[in-house]
Amino acid sequence: MSIIKKLAAGAAVGLTAYVASRPDVRERLREDLDTARLRDPAVQNDLVTLVSYPGLHAIWAHRGLHRLWQHRAGRIPARLLSQAVRAVTGVEIHPGAKIGRRFFIDHADGIVIGETAEIGDDVMLYHQVTLGGTSMEHEKRHPTLGNDVLVGAGAKILGPVNVGSGSSIGANAVVIKDVPEQSIAVGIPAVVKRPKGVEHPHHGEYELVDPAIWI
After folding, report:
1. C-beta of residue 187 within 8 angstroms of C-beta of residue 170
2. How far apart are the first and last CA of the chain?
3. For the segment 140-164, what is each residue's pLDDT rounded down to a tens digit?
4. Which of 107, 14, 1, 108 is nearest to 67 (CA)?
5. 3-class SS at 65?
6. Bridge partners of residue 151, in order along the sequence
């Protein structure tokens, strides 16, 4: 067994023991499973979701690694373990990233979330999304996503830009400027469109609307 797989197996055992000992963690786990059921119509039951959704596995691992990252002595093991999680799940979340509640990654693969990225509550990402940086300085260099944001497959959000709450990023869009609340951003580079008689860009149901009806 490779060192990466050994690290991943050890992390899984530790996580299981931690969940069993903490009622607050079990409550968050229940919330995550309910979120998966809400966001993904393919969900069949909790057991299948628990063992076969790499996006959830990556999120659960990140919560523990983020706590470890907050202690300077824990930064090297947190970084190494995050790479083990990446190898197993296909999702790379830097342990320094800040992530809110009810976060969901659908068809998790090729996800990259940088060190200074910040993600609000009720955010959903599809596969191949990058929340990347454009600076080599030790500063805020990754995106900030507000609450209730949808990011389509293959989208790249680069630099310390802000994506406002309730907004949607179209598939394969490249976002390099701020996106206001309740907006949609599509294209390369992304063009921001504002609502035209539409209250919410994805209706709270995570379905991207036709940008042709926006101005």
Report:
1. yes
2. 55
3. 999 999 999 999 999 999 999 999 9
4. 14
5. helix
6. 125, 169
